[in-house]
């Protein structure tokens, strides 16, 4: 098969992967630092393009999961990445610098090509595109690309996260009323840059709120669901991993309920993540005192962090309205019954007497006047 047909098959497979979200290293997380796994296919024409990127030495890929660099402001450091191809055909791939930003779900996302303002702008790559040979019996095809990190003299101390992106772009023809589309698959490897200087880890919990759902029949079965929302803010200059937890207790600490929030593996400096935790089987004790606690730990590739857990509290109404109405009706019924018992019984009304005093004979009623029977 000619090289042109091989590349056409790679483009077709790439478009299929982009549309269907099929497996392969290119369809994995943008921070896939491991060597990709080949995707099986019945033949060369249907085999997907499988590629990746990993830290490397000048001789080839190494076992590091990511690149870690620690240097002072103004330093220039050179490291290497390997662009990998585990397909049975060569691949033309683009290589460009990027940087990590915090996504709302707590993960890291990569900046688009050219949209860098921090660590991504410090990276200079030895090539903008590479033609990576196919895998062979000797091993995975690879090309080593030098990465030069130039730290500005005014760089802020602490952690900065860059990345090297490898991408494969395929163009789909447009229709009569539709433009052509470009499908870009990309993978990346992280470059953690720690600028020496004063480090100040920090973590706070903010914006704690809660809402209570009584459940079916307005809470007649008893227990409901408490949903707690809060924000985690990294106020320091180093990356931290965060394990949040939520507790909700009734008056005097009665019937406490707890739940863990989603673990954040990396919370970047000045990163903010909003989370929502649901606690089931919460008894409605009129009011609940809610406490959100967040424990900071060392992030991947980062130094140990010594911080007291960050906490923030709030209160939420959990009024059992239906039970209160039922209790009020029962109390009114009981009060009515007791009131009836306390009231004296009614006496029968005596016969009505005339104006004569006792012992005075009552005159007999006068005879009716006689009718005159004289004929007229």
Tally of alpha and pi helices: 2
- CATH top level of the largest domain? Mainly Beta
CATH homologous superfamily title of the largest domain:
Immunoglobulins
Average residue pLDDT: 82
What is the CATH fold-level name of the largest domain?
A: Immunoglobulin-like
In what range is the share of β-strand residues? 35-45%
Rg, Cα atoms, Å? 41 Å
* Helical proportion, percent range: 10-25%
What separation lies between the terminal Cα atoms?
153 Å
The major pleated sheet works out as: 6 strands, mixed
Order of helices and strands: HEEEEEEEEEEEEEEEEEEEH
Backbone structural class: mainly beta
CATH architecture of the largest domain: Sandwich
What's the structural blueprint in terms of helices and strands?
Elements: H1 3-20, E1 51-57, E2 60-61, E3 67-71, E4 76-85, E5 91-102, E6 108-110, E7 123-125, E8 129-132, E9 141-150, E10 158-172, E11 181-195, E12 204-213, E13 224-233, E14 240-249, E15 257-260, E16 264-267, E17 272-282, E18 286-298, E19 310-318, H2 321-342
Parallel strand pairs: 3-11
Antiparallel strand pairs: 1-2, 1-4, 4-9, 5-6, 5-8, 5-10, 7-9, 10-11, 12-13, 13-17, 14-15, 14-16, 14-18, 18-19
């Amino acid at each position: 098969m000619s090289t042109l047909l091989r590349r056409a098959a790679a483009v077709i497979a790439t478009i299929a992967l982009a549309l269907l979200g099929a497996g392969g290293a290119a369809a994995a997380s943008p921070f896939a630092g491991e060597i990709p796994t080949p995707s099986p296919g019945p033949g060369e024409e249907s085999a997907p393009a499988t590629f990746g990127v990993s830290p490397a030495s000048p001789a080839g890929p190494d076992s590091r999961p990511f690149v870690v660099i620690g240097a002072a402001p103004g330093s220039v450091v050179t490291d290497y990445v390997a662009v990998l191809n585990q397909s049975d055909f060569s691949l033309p791939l683009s290589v460009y610098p990027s940087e990590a930003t915090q996504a709302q779900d707590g993960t890291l996302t990569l900046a688009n090509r050219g949209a860098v303002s921090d660590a991504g702008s410090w990276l200079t790559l030895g090539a903008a595109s590479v033609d990576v040979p196919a895998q062979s019996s000797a091993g995975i095809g690879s090309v080593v690309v030098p990465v030069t990190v130039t730290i500005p003299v005014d760089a802020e101390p602490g952690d900065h996260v860059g990345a090297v992106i490898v991408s494969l772009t395929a163009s789909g023809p447009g229709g009569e009323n539709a433009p052509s589309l470009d499908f870009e698959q990309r993978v990346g490897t992280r470059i953690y840059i720690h600028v020496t200087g004063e480090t100040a880890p920090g973590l706070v919990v903010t914006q704690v709120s809660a809402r209570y759902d009584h459940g079916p029949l307005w809470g007649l079965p008893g227990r409901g669901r408490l949903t707690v929302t809060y924000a985690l803010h990294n106020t320091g200059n180093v990356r931290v991993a965060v394990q949040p937890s939520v507790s909700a207790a009734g008056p005097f600490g009665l019937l406490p309920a707890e739940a863990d929030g989603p673990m954040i593996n990396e919370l970047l400096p000045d990163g903010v993540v909003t989370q929502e935790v649901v606690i089931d089987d919460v008894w409605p004790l009129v009011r609940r005192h809610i406490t959100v606690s967040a424990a900071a730990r060392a992030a991947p590739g980062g130094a140990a962090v010594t911080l007291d857990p960050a906490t923030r509290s709030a209160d939420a109404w959990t009024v059992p309205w239906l039970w209160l109405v039922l209790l009020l009706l029962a109390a009114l019924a009981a009060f009515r019954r007791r009131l009836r018992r306390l009231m004296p019984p009614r006496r029968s009304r005596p016969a009505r007497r005339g104006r004569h005093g006792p012992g005075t004979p009552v005159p007999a009623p006068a005879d009716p006047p006689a009718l005159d029977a004289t004929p007229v």
